[in-house]
Specification:
This protein is of the alpha+beta class. Helix content is about 35%, strand content about 25%. It has a single domain (about 5-175), classed as 3-Layer(aba) Sandwich (Aminopeptidase).
Length: about 180
């Protein structure tokens, strides 16, 4: 089966050592905050730069211009990843050619596609955790395999689900971190 036009134009990849050059402006536009440059001390748990995994989505427009249209961050913490900072350029969907928009919609949208791409590489853990208070973002996260927990805003996507008591301890430990 031939690759679709969307597959030819859209690249989702891990940016190393960090994605600031590619996604800094998008992140500021989305969150009105500075870009999360990999560094220790960004959370109340160890966050050495080696624990950070930053993914970007770059779209090549028909005129040959590349544009960063998506970003997300994962930080390895013990046997889990903390996912945060997911953003998609606000104007991206309405500028897409109609057929590519329909295809992206059928695949769940760019955020879901980014999580699927990262899950193929970041599955060496018990779970991914997210901290999500936005209803639209939560709907995407749930489609991508996350489930809500009994802790406000804390969601989890299990890769190797531990026994119930260990699962609850892990959820409680992650909830203590606060927003990430």
């Amino acid at each position: 089966m031939a690759a679709s036009t969307l597959d030819q134009r859209l690249r989702i990849f891990r940016a190393e050592p960090d994605a600031s050059a590619l996604a800094g402006e998008l992140f500021r536009e989305s969150f009105n905050a500075g870009f999360p440059v990999p560094r220790d001390g960004s959370l109340p748990v160890p966050t050495p730069p080696s624990a950070w995994r930053q993914y970007v989505a770059v779209y090549r427009w028909p005129d040959g211009r590349d544009e960063t249209v998506g970003f997300c961050n994962w930080i390895r913490h013990r046997d889990v990843y903390l996912q945060g900072g997911m953003c998609v350029r606000r104007t991206f969907y309405r500028r897409l050619p109609r057929e590519e928009f329909r295809e992206m919609q059928a695949r769940g949208g760019l955020a879901q596609m980014m999580m699927a791409a990262a899950a193929r590489e970041l599955d060496d853990c018990a779970a991914w955790f997210g901290y999500c208070g936005d209803a639209k973002a939560l709907a995407v996260d749930l489609r991508a395999g996350y489930v809500e927990t009994n802790r406000r805003y804390v969601i989890v996507k299990w890769f190797n689900e531990p026994p119930p008591e260990e699962r609850e301890r892990l959820i409680d430990d992650i909830a203590k971190i606060g927003p990430f």
